[in-house]
Design a protein that fits this description.
The protein is an all-alpha fold. Helix content is 59%, strand content 0%. The termini are close together.
Length: 79
């Protein structure tokens, strides 16, 4: 799995757990709704850490919790 795929999978998972739409996350995080959609659809393969940080704030978690998912284990990432 690529990093873009892992980011997409994790973001979708967290949004589903919170029943959160792209619009709601955009309002809470300050990240443009188009940027959120691009991350989810893997159109943005070089996501800035600042964007992930802001998304985490909107989701009510810290970066460590975002990246603590097994999807980010070195064995799972190919790029």
């Amino acid at each position: 799995m690529t990093i873009a795929e892992a980011l997409s999978k994790r973001l979708i998972q967290l949004m589903e757990e919170r029943n959160m739409t792209e619009y709601r996350l955009s309002m809470l995080s300050g990240v443009n709704q188009t940027t959120i959609a691009d991350v989810k659809k893997m159109r943005n393969t070089a996501v800035n850490v600042r964007i992930i940080f802001e998304l985490c704030q909107g989701l009510g978690i810290d970066l460590a919790e975002f990246f603590s998912d097994p999807v980010f284990n070195n064995d799972n990432i190919i790029d």
